Amino acid sequence: MEALEYLMSAYFHQDWILDGGESSDTVRAFLAAEKSQLVIDCAQEIDDLLGEKLAEGEIERRLTSWGAQYRAGDTDADYRSWLIEIRDQIRASASS
What we know:
The protein is mainly α. The protein is built from 6 helices and no strands.
């Protein structure tokens, strides 16, 4: 999951809020700066991650291990919702 890991470490790092302010702003920066194949791969990797059968807390643990400092909430459902928002934003950008 190189593309998703890259998004988490390079864009949702410890100072992400200073760079973007909102999660959607950070994703817009990613879309503007990165090659289209990386962006497409990232959306697919989100689908792949969401399709895995994971124990509660595993999504947050993985994202954190990849360098993400964004806190989506207290449950995997919160992180799933956040990842779906990112995926949908990526796909909407790709189709426009």
